[in-house]
Amino acid sequence: MYDKIYGLLRDTTPLLADCGILCNHRCCRGTEDEGMLLFPGERTTLDVRESEGRRLAVCEGQCNRNNRPLSCMLFPFFPLIGKDGKITIDFDFRGVYVCPLILNSDVTSFNRKFIKNALKAGKLLTKDDECRRFLEEITEEINEAKELYQKLKG
Ligand code: SF4
Ligand code: SF4
User: Fold this and answer.
1) N or C end of the chain, less CB within 10 A?
2) What spacing in Å lies between the alpha carbon of 125 and ligand 2's midpoint?
3) What's the pLDDT score for residue 105?
C-alpha cells in the first residue's frame, strides 16, 4: 500500500515552485527531539524515536527526498476523515505556527494534481483498519488545533 501511496506523492508537490524560499524550509528544520509522525506500519531509513506510543522519523533537516516519510510528502496538508468516512484534503493546522502557507492561502490555489493524488492516498489509507483509526485520531487533533487557534485569535 505504501509503495502505491509514495508513487502518487513522491514527485508531486503542493506548489509548483519551491515554497521553502518563503520560510527558509522551516518544516525541515527539526531537532533530534522533534520528528515527522510515521503512519502505522510505515518504514523509513531515517532514525526513529518513540513518543507517547507513536513513532517519529528524525532527520535533523536532511533526507533523501525520494525516501521522505508520508507526513513530509503531505505537509502542510493532511487527508482528514469525516464522520461519514469521507476524505477531504485540508491544511494540517498542527503546523499553523510553522508553515506560512496555512494562513495565507486557499486549498484551491495549490497544485491540483497534488491535491487529487493526496485524496487518492487518503482513500487508500482508509482501506487499512489501523491506518483508518490513525486518520481519525490525527483528524481529531487537527480539528482541535484549528479550534484552539481560532479561539486564541479571537
Ligand atoms: S513550512 Fe510550509 S512554506 Fe515552508 S517549506 Fe514547509 S511547506 Fe513550504
Ligand atoms: S525527512 Fe526530509 S522532508 Fe521530512 S522534515 Fe526531514 S528533511 Fe524535511
Assistant:
1) C
2) 21
3) 81
